[in-house]
Amino acid sequence: MLLGLRISNVAVIEEVEVAFGAGLTVLTGETGAGKSILVDSLGLLLGGRADADAIRAGCEEASVEGVFERTPVLGARLEELGLPDLGDEVLVRRVVGRSGRAKAYINGSLVTVGVLARFMRGAVDIAGQHEHVSLFDAGLHRVLLDRYGQLEQQLATYMCDYAAVADVVERMEALGGDENRLRERAEFLRFQLDEITKLEPEPGEDVRLDAERKRLAGSEKLKRQGAEAELLLGGEESSAVETVGRALGLVNEAARTDATLAPVAQSLGAALSELEEAQRRLNRYVEGLESDPARLGEVEDRLDALKRLCRKHATTLDGVLQKRDALETELSTLDNRQEVLEELARERKSAEDRARRSGEALSRARIACAGTFGTQVREGLGMLALGKAAFEVRVTPGLQLKAEGLDEVEFFFSANPGEPSRSLAKVASGGEASRLLLALKRALADSDGCGCYILDEADAGVSGAIADVVGRMIKDVSGHRQVLCITHLPQVAAYSDAHLLIRKGLKGERTVSEVVALDAGAERTQELARMMSGVEVTREALGAAEALVRSASRASGPPRTRREPAPEGGARGRLRRSA
């Protein structure tokens, strides 16, 4: 659920902060007052495209902040993404700069817009006044049916089985086809493999050879340095061994008088032993060093060959060894292609059988819920004065395995009795499509995981007595989900739990939009009367508005308590602190 929204420097909005509660909140106002700006701004928090032209003139950046209720789904996504968890609320912020660069934050942590979109996916459903156009896309019909029937897990099982089939088919296609192409491929693999095999590289060989090359190339210098070090350790006069030995003798003699010097004597004795051992090892090292130009040449040639091989395959020596194993495997597969194809054919049949079984189970589940879904949508259409309209969900199972099941799913509709049902694109007018969209929203309300519906004039094309029924239906949906509804219909606005008025005015010489929360009494009645009568609110319009409110109150029961965020710990406080 959306708890609060703050918008800064977007179009005609300079600074607006709004708190939202449960149930139905309507937003009304004159055309162009800025109602849809709120919806567009909310779209930015969902990862929508940022347009620098939307930034208020004279400002370098615009920002939108929203506080959402922390659901288990959002909590799991915070943990998955390693983002801070602030408790009961999630703060999302989007900043758009004049240069077009945008920044996004979740609970104060900077994220990419792509991460923001994934994090907010499914949290808010925005239905615009033109969204009924998407109902004409039959590809959406399957998605809606699966969502209604909560068939996501069965679909995931089928898609996993289908992916196994696609994998086998891909491997078979790699082995099938033109014999000349496969023979050329085998010859090329054999050439590459022979090149690696002839060189016979060993793991870590390049590192060992490089160390040996350095030692051979610097043998004379190493011998000179080793001999000099050995002389300093154990030469005739003033060597380290001789100096430490004399010091040890003096300390041993003194220790016979003062026993506290015994540890010093032990340390000197240990140091003398280490120095003598170092001298012996240096002696052996120097004597073992030989200048061997022939071996140095061999090592350098071998290193060059290994480096050429690594460059050719664009990898390290370990990568070359892995490539050798892969070449051997592929070549063996090609050499035994017929046997491998027969094995893959058996594997493909087994995978297709599994996919077909899971696909048929998915088809049965779709068919089972199609009837119930159609019934609920028809009930909604009946409430919207389309009681004689025909609506059905046709699930046509096929034999061919496809990425999302065996079925074709399509909605069929007829607004007039006696007329055959046809696909939506051919029969639904704008007003009928708007009512069908609302009926679908109502049917999906129980199964949809979305916590907040935004209806941006989704009731467009509806008028007269049907408008009251539309308001009643939207009110019914708000019993399951938070609903924010932008509307020009007073019959819809009368059903609201909270009423926000968006209006334009002048601040200095600049036009600004503001959002005013209307009281449930006279202020709200005044706005409903304005929606009915226009600029001049007549006494008759006020009377009609009061009647609308009374009628809506009787139809929807007691008013819903609006949740107000806490001043400091809740949405309003969080939004202030994030500024």
From TrEMBL:
The keyword Transcription does not apply. The keyword Magnesium does not apply. GO terms for biological process: DNA recombination; DNA repair; SOS response. It comes from the Bacteria. GO terms for cellular component: bacterial nucleoid. Pfam families: SMC_N. Signal peptide: none annotated. Residues 21-506 form the AAA+ ATPase domain. SMART domains: AAA. Belongs to the RecN family. This is DNA repair protein RecN. It comes from Melittangium boletus DSM 14713.
